[in-house]
Specification:
The protein has about 500 residues and is an alpha/beta fold. The chain has two domains: about 5-285, Rossmann fold (3-Layer(aba) Sandwich), CATH 3.40.50.720; about 290-495, N-(1-d-carboxylethyl)-l-norvaline Dehydrogenase, domain 2 (Orthogonal Bundle), CATH 1.10.1040. The protein has 21 helices and 13 strands. The strands form four sheets. It has a five-stranded parallel beta sheet with strand order 6-3-2-7-8, with helices on both faces. Strands 5-4-11 form a three-stranded mixed beta sheet, sandwiched between helices. It is globular and about 65 Å long.
Length: about 500
């Protein structure tokens, strides 16, 4: 084998895979992106790179940023290779690679966020984007209101010039821009939240109001917060994924694997301009809500349909879950009978077509997307993805048997052991409370539904609470696979009525 090439600006011309054809030394920043994980680099950074390959958007380069100590490790890896990333596309029929170069720097991780604030205050920065996960927006999971009681936010309100959150840093930067007469920037959420732009507006404006009402009014009037829908499966890296770079002759300690699918639907609300992302496949629409509803309910809620039971059964990946006959059947039935009725068609796609697409994507054996990753942070993902569907089904008087079983599987998973008695390690910011409640629910199922910050009034007598209290004992007394089979029998019997 030829000697492997360490990824850097100096070695780009030695690569045999697609790589930046533009002069990266001529790029200037226009975007700060907070939360530089695999998804961002496989998705938003890729769209911008494609524009740069077409000799466009060279004044929109990305500066990476983070606000958590663990971000420092990614910063170190990326700076060591000039912020270049190898993207490896794992199509079931083919594996290909491409090196992208749309990110040009990564700011230091500081407790005060001083460098981040200073960079965002620069007039050249016209977009501040973020991928900070669904649970990172400080909203109450039931009411969806801004959580003023959180210690992080109370700190930022009391110390607006030394914030510890990304949102506090944004407010501080906007304060500097306003004072200097530089004008606003666009705040762009790229997280899987229904109305993510509206939620980001709520968080930023509400936090600003805690320390400076006049600034909050200016932000609310002048800053734009477009809603967006993002989609591309980009799993976490393990040794197997990291080794793939060597197959293409590259040493890359921060590579990203991803599926052969991307989608980005965005509201065209950018107060100081934007790259022409529509030229490389993004969709601009006034009806992002319909696209994101389809994606969040069928894909993201669909992940929760199978990941929790997959963890209990010790099934390692989502593709392996889809290869399990009873689990795949459960996924398809819940999708078609309880999720699809709450989803409207969008231009070019019906719910039925999208379900088929998701079944194919989830079944891709090359995508090593672990059930553990997908099941992470259920205390944010179930209220965000699953329960809104359940509420719509209840309001329409339709079945919630499958969704009740989904929630029962989550309660069983949070007990902390698999059916083979192996331990499920902590996998949620609220893991200790969830485990304690799951243990109480083994004897008294209603204990789980009394997690008021998650279920709210769903603990009241209704078809959901009744079904949940039937299914959880079945799981404990008979096991997951018998419960899946019993559900299939229930569906067949209901269809014959």
């Amino acid at each position: 084998m030829d000697e492997l090439i360490s990824l850097s600006n100096a070695t780009l011309d030695q690569l045999t895979v697609e790589h930046p054809r533009y002069d990266r030394t001529t790029l200037t920043p226009g975007i700060v992106h907070i939360g530089v994980g695999n998804f961002h680099r496989a998705h938003q950074a890729w769209y911008l790179h494609r524009l740069m390959q077409a000799n466009q958007a060279k004044d929109w380069a990305i500066i990476g940023a983070g606000v958590r100590p663990y971000d420092a490790a990614m910063r170190e890896k990326l700076l060591a290779q000039d912020c270049l990333t190898t993207l490896i596309e794992l199509d079931p029929k083919n594996v290909s690679a491409e090196v992208i170069g749309s990110m040009i720097d990564y700011l230091p991780i500081e407790e005060s966020n001083a460098t981040l604030i200073s960079q965002m205050a620069e007039p050249a920065i016209r977009i501040v984007a973020m991928t900070v996960t669904e649970s990172g927006y400080y909203i109450d999971p039931v009411t969806k209101e801004f959580d003023t009681t959180h210690a992080d936010l109370q700190h930022d309100a009391a110390n607006p010039d030394m914030p510890i959150t990304a949102f506090g840093a944004i407010v501080a930067a906007l304060r500097l821009r306003h004072a200097a007469g530089h004008g606003p920037f666009t705040c762009l959420s790229c997280d899987n939240l229904q109305g993510n732009g509206d939620i980001l507006r709520q968080t930023v404006v509400s936090l600003a109001r805690l320390s400076d009402a006049d600034l909050a009014d200016w932000i609310d009037t002048e800053v734009t917060f477009p809603n967006s829908m993002v989609d591309c499966i980009a799993p976490s890296n393990g040794p197997k994924e990291l080794a793939l770079a060597a197959d293409f002759g590259i040493i890359d300690n921060a590579l990203v694997t991803h599926e052969a699918f991307r989608q980005w639907v965005i509201e065209d609300k950018f107060c100081v301009g934007r790259p022409n992302w529509e030229k490389v496949g993004a969709t601009f629409s006034d009806d992002v809500h319909s696209f994101e509803t389809m994606k969040i309910r069928i894909l993201n809620a669909g992940h929760q349909v199978i990941a929790n039971v997959g963890e209990i059964l010790g099934i390692e990946t989502i593709a392996d879950c889809m290869a399990h006959p009873e689990l795949a059947a459960f996924f398809g039935t819940v999708q078609r009978t309880e999720i699809a009725p709450t989803v409207a068609a969008v231009p070019g796609n019906t719910p039925a077509q999208y379900i088929e697409l998701i079944e194919d994507r989830f079944s891709n054996p090359r995508i090593v997307d672990t059930t553990r990753r997908v099941a992470f942070d259920g205390s944010a993902r179930h209220p965000g993805f699953v329960l809104p569907i359940l509420r719509d089904q209840l309001a329409a008087g339709r079945s919630v048997e499958g969704l009740a079983l989904v929630e029962a599987f989550w309660a069983r998973m949070c007990f902390g052991t698999r059916e083979d008695a192996s331990v499920i390690e902590a996998n949620d910011p609220n893991w200790n409370d969830l485990c304690k409640t799951a243990k109480a629910a083994k004897e008294r199922p209603m204990a789980w539904l009394e997690l008021n910050r998650i279920y709210g009034d769903l603990a009241q007598p209704c078809p959901f609470s009744e079904a949940f209290c039937r299914w959880l004992p079945v799981i404990w007394e008979q096991g997951c696979e018998p419960a899946l089979k019993a559900y299939a029998v229930h569906v067949r019997e209901e269809s014959c009525v």
